[in-house]
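Lab meeting prep.
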Amino acid sequence: TGTVTLAANATTTYTGLTSVSQGTLIVESALGAGQVIVDSGATLGGEGSTAGLLALGLFNTNANLSVDASTAGAFTSVGLNTGLGTHTVNFSAGPVGTGNITILNYGAGTGDAATDFIVGTGLTVSGRGGAFSNNVAAMTIELSTGFADRTWNGNGGNITHWVSGDTTDNWQEGDLDFFDGDFVTFDDTAGAAGPV
């Protein structure tokens, strides 16, 4: 307990309960077979694992996760119980591309509703919106940021500039619009000449 950060970097055979009631536990290794409980206001981070159940806010509400979205890794448990609350996912680093961000892997256990998570600090989702989902086939909780790849074509009504959320269809792919955070390409295929 306490408002400190504890890092678990070495594999352990400990099989008892690991309870995070305050502060932050960063796990970069294997914790063993014990259950991990992250209580209200406490934080779990890292890309390690437990061979036990991960319980978020089991007795209270609003546990926190810390996720590094610049890597493909995520914390892994054999099961997931999101308890009674809505849990905040804070990001220590943003994504390096488009696509879903894996928040948790929950192994062969049962993942709870993805609606139990909200985006906290360190990441802004696209103007298209972002949403958590429970990928049952992959047994992961994921976040779609709404960011997309777009290629400029300049065929829309305003070819001299773009604005986030602009609906002039100057972009290829998807909804044909640009939003802040999208990854863009200018490939000299614009339909008409004009300053950009």
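Slide two material, second protein:
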Amino acid sequence: SARERLALLFDNGTYKEIFKFVKNLNSPSFKDGLVCASGMVNGKPIMAYASEFSVQGGSIGRLQSDQISEIYRYARLAGIPIVSLIESGGAKISDSFHIMEGYARVMKEATFCSGVIPQITCVLGHCIGAAAFVANLTDFIIMTEDSTLCLSGAVVNKIATGEDVSEKDLGGVEIHNKYSGGIHFTEKDEKSAINK
């Protein structure tokens, strides 16, 4: 889960959740696909967020994009690194055009942070669509061997091009290591990636 991943990232006893009681109007739960937190890593403060794949495929809606934008802003103003732990299907389509505006704000904040604070993304599963755009704006990308980072999935690719291509061939670790050069580190599993 997102909380378990964040607990792996932070030093023991330093993890504090932010925006804990924010929820979408369409959801009865406070668990809505994203967990944001602050804490210490190796004794130094950082901000982080983790997508929760078990909730609507970790897709990000308008409220989640607002939260991500805010922690980017907090990190930039405090001069501390930001870490994203991603397993996301991208934009939450049910939020219609509002999510495109939301992701635009996230990308703007990530751009403002460029060269100001370190930005690190761990791709721990599927990272598709707008989530992949944001990941590619960060300074370092760490992918697990079984993860994918691509702008669209195999089904969308099949509809658009008529080609049958696997997720791994679209954006697996081998593609990024050999051809795109878009990732910096590959790790066997998520524990190794988070501890990198």
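Talking points for slide two:
Residues 24 and 63 are 7 Å apart (CA to CA).
The radius of gyration is 16 Å.
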